[in-house]
Design a protein that fits this description.
single chain; 241 residues; alpha/beta; Rossmann fold; 7-stranded parallel beta sheet; globular; binds NADPH dihydro-nicotinamide-adenine-dinucleotide phosphate; SDR_fam; Sc_DH/Rdtase_CS; acetoacetyl-CoA reductase activity; oxidoreductase
Amino acid sequence: MTKLALVTGGTRGIGAAIAERLQREGHRVAVTFHGNDAAARAFQDRTGIAAYKWDVADAEACQAGVQKLQADLGQVVEILVNNAGITRDASLHKMTLEQWHAVIATDLSACFNMSRVVIEGMRSRNWGRIVNIASINGQKGQFGQTNYAAAKAGMIGFTKALALESARKGITVNAVAPGYTATDMVSAVDSKVLEGVIAQIPVGRLAQPAEIAHAVAFLVDAQSGFITGSTLSVNGGQYLV
Ligand code: NDP
């Protein structure tokens, strides 16, 4: 039977590209979003993919949301892509506790919230794929992003630990670490700053969301069962680990 893939934050940007790519690969796909109803409607109209609204930072909402979508679709989640993320940039000496907690909760704790809900089902079926969308800035650090770099580096540690726990159960857990990608998140960056960033990318341009989706499709492929605990950098050569 076609597998059900769930992509958090899948109505815009990288998540939307991942959802559409997985749909083209023949998976059944559902996505989540948080507040942008217009973008969600446009995405649903364009793709026919069901979009569910809840806050991934809220553990109870994740539990209830996954239960509802599984009941609606009559199928359990076998592929999870933890993609939803936000930035709240400020230098540490100016960062508020709220900015810190918002990013840790949305980018890092959400991985726990979502993986915790689906992992038992994957373990009982002896198959599963989890991909966590980290960031180049979790690998190398970034000025003004102590919260975001900590969350994204935390996702990489989470990925490795859960990969070890899940390996004997046929579940792979990997991270993709994108470099700067042409989405709404990056269009919020000051154009002068962005010019400087592009100058540091050996490939000489931003990534396209579809290029990040390509890495995710590779990791969730049935033939990728021996790849687990890894972080796949998709950054145009900007940071080589
Ligand atoms: P966008 O801002 O374009 O889209 C973010 C998506 O996440 C939207 O669908 C949004 O929903 C959803 N979302 C945000 N907060 C929540 C929440 N609390 N609960 C549920 N859904 C939420 O982001 P990108 O596509 O640029 O980024 C996707 C991922 O890739 C993020 O994790 C980001 O950190 C990471 N990344 C991005 C890079 C880039 O250069 N763009 C580089 C490296 C990593 P809604 O539309 O309702 O707001």
